[in-house]
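We modelled each protein-ligand pair independently. The example shown here corresponds to the NDP entry; the chain sequence is given first, followed by the ligand as SMILES.
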Amino acid sequence: MSVAVLGSGAFGTALAISLAGNGPVTLWSRNAEQARHMQDSRENTVRLPNVTLPDEILVTADIQDAVASDVLLLAVPMQKLRAALMEHATVLAGKTLVACCKGIELSSGLGPISVIQQTIPDARPALLTGPSFADDIARGLPTALTLACADGDLSETLQTELTTANLRLYRTTDVIGAELGGALKNVMAIGCGAAIGAGLGDSARAALMTRGFAEMQRFALMRGARPDTLMGLTGLGDLVLTCSSELSRNYRFGLCLGRNRPFDSQTTVEGVATARAMADIAAAEGLDMPISATVADLSHGTYSVPQAIQTLLNRPLKEE
Ligand SMILES: NC(=O)C1=CN([C@@H]2O[C@H](COP(=O)(O)OP(=O)(O)OC[C@H]3O[C@@H](n4cnc5c(N)ncnc54)[C@H](OP(=O)(O)O)[C@@H]3O)[C@@H](O)[C@H]2O)C=CC1
Ligand SMILES: O=C(CO)COP(=O)(O)O
């Protein structure tokens, strides 16, 4: 089964490198100059420097080269997914499309699978998610991820085809749970980064992770996820990774908020839009999601860190 990756950012490049161990991979970039540079220099100097692209990877800016593959991995940021799909809707029709992004679309409140279903109705959608830093995957370090697909047969096929020497895939048919585990943990990572950045300590981080996880589960159940899905790689696993490592951009963004320092606006930080989406949906549904709402306000500059702390600590006491 041939594989192409659409989107040559950090994650798309890392996945292409890992999959190259299974055979030829096409890595598509929307930027022709960057594609040429990567193909010639065998390095993605912009998004994933200091890692060599194996010879099995063809980097191209010609979408026809990519859509000739059986399976297409979509490695673009969540808020860009719809535009990327719509731009190439004709050639993506009927394809197996595996979203690799983590987030909730702000304009619609939908996750990546639903966005694929809306834009390319006859595509066969799946999702690859879970705890993994692009750098780790690209360096061949062991990683375990979740492959989610509502079609059980396709789920098994993709699990087999996309597993590599260092990338072990588990499968689930709970696409809603898988989507939300990956999306919501980024919101909590921003909150944890802010707490550590502001010097609030590891105990505060543990409290935020635990109570944040309770919010993630509450939200996911409301949206129809299976109760156990978020206990796996896509929920708890990714929460632990992202809330505790400075390799995470969401966590680093939070650190800067906590330290009152600027953050590079060109860096992809999925949790900012997702926090807003999550807080708005929760408010409309009457769900109690204080950490998510606070992270949304903090990320968008409505709250300062001291205000955020006071808001969370001064709430009425309750049962756990
Ligand atoms: N990095 C990581 O460790 C991990 C990332 N992910 C997820 O993967 C997704 C992508 O993240 P990541 O690769 O790190 O992000 P990056 O910021 O490194 O790269 C994003 C890529 O998407 C491309 N892109 C943006 N908009 C479009 C579009 N409309 N059409 C085509 N390409 C587009 C960008 O192209 P250009 O350079 O031209 O702007 C860029 O190559 C995110 O949802 C993230 O949460 C998941 C697990 C790990
Ligand atoms: O999703 C990730 C780890 O699983 C990557 O996290 P960041 O997007 O915060 O860098």
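The first strand starts at residue 3 and ends at 6.
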